[in-house]
Amino acid sequence: MRPSETANRAMGVFHGRRIVVTGGAGFLGRVVVRKLRERGCRELTVPRRATCDLTRVDRIEKLFEDARPHLLIHLAATVASPTGHRDVGESFYNNVIMATQLIEAASRHGVEKMIYLGSASSYPANAPVPLREQDLFKGLPEPGRAEHGVAKRLPLIQALAYRQQYGFHCSCLIPTNFYGPGDNFDPRTSFVIPALIRKFLEAAETGAQDIAIGGTGCATRDFIHVEDCAEAVLLALEHYQGAEPINVGSGSEVPIHELARRIALLTGYTGKIHWDPSYPEGTMRRVLDVTRAQKEFGFRARRSLSDGLFETIEWYRSTRSHPLPRPQPSVIEQSV
User: Fold this and answer.
1) pLDDT in tens, 147-157
2) What is the span of the domain harbouring residue 215?
3) pTM here?
4) What confidence score (pLDDT) does residue 1 get?
5) Structurally, how many domains does the chain consist of?
6) Which long-range contacts link 131-139 to residues 24+ away (Cβ below 8 Å)?
7) Assigned domain for 328 exists
8) CA distance 128 to 336
9) Does one domain contain both 197 and 110?
10) Within-domain flag for 85
């Protein structure tokens, strides 16, 4: 190996590669971008919606002409509010059109490889647990998340077709619920872990003795720390050449009532927890089979849920020198 090759290898496999990360300013995207820089990537482009609306073909064309990427990571997405469906049509359109146009443009512009982030909500409502990639298209998703689930799995068909016709390498990762420092704690749009952390922490601080949580607490989910999820994205970008989708999760099934108990303990809340079964819980069991990720690119989640929750709670505490408005109504839905 020549000296220059040795130096480049030491600086990281992404050194000298031009990479575009859509959604790179978001929760997961910020971690992915940081990890890319740590691996030696210096030519990173993170398009922002204010100047690069990915639903517009002309903006995408300009992005590719200016950035000339070797690699593309597509993390940008819109998610309808967990407590309502007013924006579900807009969310469906945005997710489908962004992915469709990016795959088309990346193929035409000679991008070597693309990683696309799907969603665990794409799995059929009646799929056997743990959820396996081969069952992804064996039915429709749970009705409450069907629009989002279908929108996020449609690009997989396009990617397979483009691989067959054009030889374009686009691989889909299907992450479970990721969480961690930097998560969204807005009570109007946050999901289960940040919503529970905020609720329990505020109750502990004010001395409240009762908390109401929507659902029965019996639904189960698979949670993965955002650092682990980002690591999976980079491992796939570096090592995975396959066409089949790959689950990214912890492989551990956690009941929501157990999650709530852990968060209550870590935040110092000692009062009562009341479950309101009138609230919808969605799919009752969701945990991913992560065998394929381990086999194909050696991924395994490293952070335990307890450590991850503690880290996330401490991060949120540190941000509260400027208190956020309290959530309304007082009942938390456990939508995930």
Assistant:
1) 999 999 999 99
2) 181-221+252-285+303-318
3) 0.90
4) 36
5) 2
6) 131/247, 131/286, 131/287, 131/288, 131/289, 132/247, 132/289, 133/174, 133/244, 133/245, 133/246, 133/247, 133/289, 133/292, 136/174, 136/245
7) no
8) 18
9) no
10) yes
